[in-house]
Design brief:
heterodimer; A: 15 helices; B: Fumarate Reductase Iron-sulfur Protein, Chain B, domain 2; 3 domains; four-stranded parallel sheet; 8 strands; about 10% strand
């Protein structure tokens, strides 16, 4: 509970209208896309960098925890008030401040929705590549905090690769600027990239400068069906290994295909054990040639079916299965835990085999969806949170899965973040020295540990 | 008590938040409590005993269009609309109807219509018609009943709709009748206000009247009446929206269409499209009109964005309703068309009123008006 005097102080900074503490507001800001819920003491919607600076100064002075939140669609528990305190949300700071076509960059406020930015820059023939599945709802601020990825990551990379600069409010209330509009910048330590993926534990982003690329003129979309999951996984790695850089290379296993079919989506033949959805983009002629090459590639490696979309409508149809995949799988049982283990793409077939093994060993229902092109796996564990015994088995399976992924040279999280979801596995991937350094960095930025405490570090 | 069929729905919600992508209300009001996810979670918190039903809680559930966009977007298949309607019921039961709905509910219970006027005036829209046949479209027996609906009956801005539809039906030789003062509200506003039990009387009455007339089919110009009958009326009667019937009449050659040389866009009303399943009939009609060019809105068919007139929102928060109408108008303007055609009197009222208030140059037509125009050009 906040002292009345403090609540009044915060109210005076943003105005009564933007300081929320009704039971309904506290309840609806107690959750995000992950599972555990924590009721905050208040929710504040600041309208400017200055207001946020004032808020942080007061919070730092009084030792009040502050947790920043975008659209609350993250699935690692990054934006809940794990140790109480206040949620700060950026709904009001949602302007695209500038689209600089000559410098090919844009400056936005943290509350801008990813898809809105993409739509706006497309009008200038430009593209903002990071396309997380949540893009129609998630905000750029949240994307930066989690270093969001997406299917286009295999060719275009992730948020970090497009981040040029930030304006950040530190836990002390001080405001700093990092980076700028230049593509190249080696002055000082790279604070910009350090912030990216820091999960709201080092500072609050109030202005974000992102790089844009020219919108590719054409694309080709293909779907390949395999009678063997291993074939599909090997084909995915081989495509990358051959030097083709697809824009998208998505893999779905039989469990996913069945779920899609069961919920009225596309039906697949009995032999289909895996599906690859592949997209290439670029100049028309090049894209044609690449599409042909990939089709041949798939057929040579065991694809029982390979079809290329002959029109944008066709391409849409091929994407339908991929788009409805998560939803279909999520309906099978009351809850769906989405995991995020990532390995070097060459190890994809191996980690997939491991997951199938673990599902069998621990009697779990797991569907495999993957951004196969960059080795970023999303095992979808269909479960029921009320089944305590199954939760124990899942935990054991996850531990083994992460051990295996890290042993293969991989990581705990490709794009979803650590948050509270994977905090307990950090020691698997990082030595004590590495973790000490991270703790040190955290201490430098946030000596009183008020910003999103209880998160991964 | 929230029934299991409803708690089952909100148990399916995985809090992914993707519903926020298509909810017009949360894009205006921003706060999580006004998002579809927020309302589902509020329902769950109430059910768990973590929250009580405050006036604010009631107000949150009133600020919803019941447009169904979230239902289409939800990857987990949660029937959010069902939960929202049920929560309004739960709240009305425990606290009474939302204070802004009281007048309308009273009008419905006493006068069987939403306008507060005497229900015997329901047929007054006929007063402005020239060459009215002797029976004034009210017969003792007919194949088809045209169920006009409260809004088109009583609100002058949209009386053109029944005036146009009866001309079309007459010209096509359809054996139809209206119920006039015998028509009672279909019940939808009562269901939307959380008092469905009060609609039972209307449902029984309306069904009896239609059956008495020996009719086999009921045609509606109001999508909300149409979907209410489909969902809540137990009947074997054939139910058609006007656009479906008009399409049939054109195909049968009973109506001939002349040229209307203009460019229009079409707005899918929520209760006709998403909630009624009718997307093709109106488009087929538009494409059959010579000289007419149809430009689709950027969000069309299942993705159509509510005009702001749904879910009793006009009553609960007229300012919000108007702000949403503004967004709709801007979407219409982006097509370049100067005319929007739709097939719902509530959409017409909502869009036209906002355009008029903001002095925006935009023609808003109901499809029946357009068909009559086209018929006159033969």
């Amino acid at each position: 509970m906040l002292l009345k005097s403090l609540a009044d102080e915060f109210r005076s900074m943003v105005g009564d209208e933007w300081f929320l503490d009704t039971p309904e507001d506290l309840a609806t800001y107690s959750y995000d896309g992950f599972l555990p819920e924590f009721r905050p003491d208040a929710v504040i919607l600041p309208g400017s960098t200055d207001e946020i600076s004032k808020i942080m100064r007061a919070a730092n002075r009084e030792g009040i925890n502050i947790t920043p939140r975008g659209a609350g669609t993250n699935i690692c528990g990054g934006s809940v008030a794990k140790e109480g305190g206040i949620i700060i949300t950026f709904h009001r700071m949602n302007k695209i401040l500038e689209i600089d076509t000559e410098n090919r960059c844009a400056v936005v406020q943290p509350g801008v929705v990813n898809a809105d930015l993409q739509k706006e820059v497309a009008r200038y023939g430009l593209m903002y590549p990071p396309d997380p599945a949540s893009m129609f709802v998630s905000t750029i601020g949240g994307n930066v905090a989690l270093n969001a990825g997406g299917p286009r990551g295999v060719k275009y990379g992730v948020t970090r690769d497009y981040l040029l600069g930030l304006e950040v409010v530190l836990p002390s209330g001080d405001v700093i600027k990092t980076g700028g509009k230049t593509l190249k910048n080696v002055s000082g330590y790279d604070l910009t990239r350090l912030m990216c993926g820091s999960e709201g534990t080092l500072g609050i982003f109030t202005e974000i400068t992102v790089r844009l690329v020219p919108m590719p003129p054409a694309k080709a979309t293909l779907q390949a069906i395999f009678s063997d999951l291993d074939d599909a996984a090997k084909t995915a790695s081989a495509i990358i290994g051959s030097g083709i850089v697809p824009t998208t290379l998505e893999l779905m296993d039989r469990v996913v295909l069945d779920a899609i079919g069961d919920y009225g989506g596309a039906q697949f033949s009995k032999e289909a054990q895996a599906l690859l959805l592949i997209e290439v983009d670029g100049e028309e002629l090049l894209v044609e040639a690449q599409g042909e090459k990939i089709e041949k590639f798939c057929k040579e490696r065991g694809a029982i079916e390979a079809q290329r979309a002959s029109s944008p409508e066709d391409a849409e149809k091929l994407w339908q299965a991929r788009r409805t995949a998560f939803g279909a799988v999520a309906r099978v049982r009351p809850n769906c835990i989405v995991e995020d283990a990532t390995v070097p793409v060459k190890k994809l077939p191996e980690i997939i085999k491991k997951i199938v093994e673990l599902a069998d060993k621990y009697q779990l229902k797991i569907a495999i969806l993957a951004h196969a092109g960059d080795g970023n796996l999303h095992p979808l564990i269909m479960t029921d949170l009320r089944d305590k015994e199954e939760m124990v088995r899942i935990d054991k399976a996850l531990e083994e899965m992460y051990e295996a992924a890290i042993a293969m040279g991989g990581t705990l999280s490709g794009e979803h973040g650590i948050g509270i979801a994977k905090k307990r596995f950090m020691a698997m991937e990082f030595s004590e020295s590495a973790i000490e350094i991270m703790r040190g960095i955290k201490r430098v930025f946030d000596p009183n540990n008020i910003l999103n405490p209880g998160s991964f570090i | 008590m929230i029934p299991k069929s409803i708690t089952h729905e909100f148990d399916q919600c995985i809090k992914c938040g993707l519903c926020q992508a298509t909810c017009p209300v949360c894009k205006e009001l921003l706060l999580e409590k006004y998002t579809p996810r927020g309302k589902i979670q509020l329902a769950r918190f109430y059910n768990q005993g973590d929250l009580g039903l405050s006036a604010h809680y009631q107000d949150i559930f009133a600020k919803c269009l019941l447009c169904g966009a979230c239902v289409t977007t939800c990857p987990s298949g949660v029937d959010l609309n069902k939960v929202f309607i049920n929560m309004r019921e739960e709240i009305a039961e425990k606290k009474g109807v939302h204070h802004k709905m009281e007048v309308v509910v009273r009008s419905l219970v006493v006068n069987y219509n939403i306008s507060g006027e005497d229900n015997s005036d329901r047929g007054e829209w006929r007063d402005f018609l020239k060459d009215l046949p002797d029976h004034m479209y009210q017969k003792d027996k007919a194949e088809v009943v045209y169920f006009v609906g409260c809004v088109a009956s009583f609100f002058p801005m949209v009386q053109k709709i029944p005036q146009s539809l009866v001309r079309i039906l007459e010209s096509a030789g359809v054996d139809f009748t209206i119920l006039a003062g015998d028509e009672w509200c279909c019940g939808f506003p009562l269901i939307g206000a959380g008092v469905p039990e009060k609609a039972r009387e209307m449902i029984e009455h309306n069904l009896e009247r239609v059956i008495e007339l020996g009719a086999k089919m009921v045609v509606f110009s109001c999508p909300s009446c149409y979907r209410t009958w489909k969902e809540y009326y137990r009947t074997d009667l054939e139910l058609f929206h006007s656009t479906q019937l008009i399409e049939k009449l054109i195909r049968d050659g009973a109506i001939r269409l002349g040229a209307v040389n203009t460019t229009v866009t079409y707005h899918d009303p929520c209760d006709l499209g998403r909630n009624g399943g009718v997307y093709d009939a109106p488009r087929w009609i538009l494409k059959s009109i010579p000289g007419l060019t149809l430009l689709e809105l950027e969000n069309n068919h299942t993705q159509s964005v509510c005009c702001g007139g749904g879910g009793n929102l006009e009553l609960a928060d007229s300012g919000l309703s108007a702000a949403l109408a503004q967004k709709k108008i801007e979407e219409i303007q982006r097509t370049g068309a100067k005319t929007v055609v739709t097939s719902c009197q509530q959409c017409i009222r909502t869009i036209r009123a906002r355009a008029a208030r903001q002095e925006i140059d935009l023609d808003v037509w109901d499809i029946t008006e357009l068909v009559v125009q086209s018929m006159s050009r033969v």
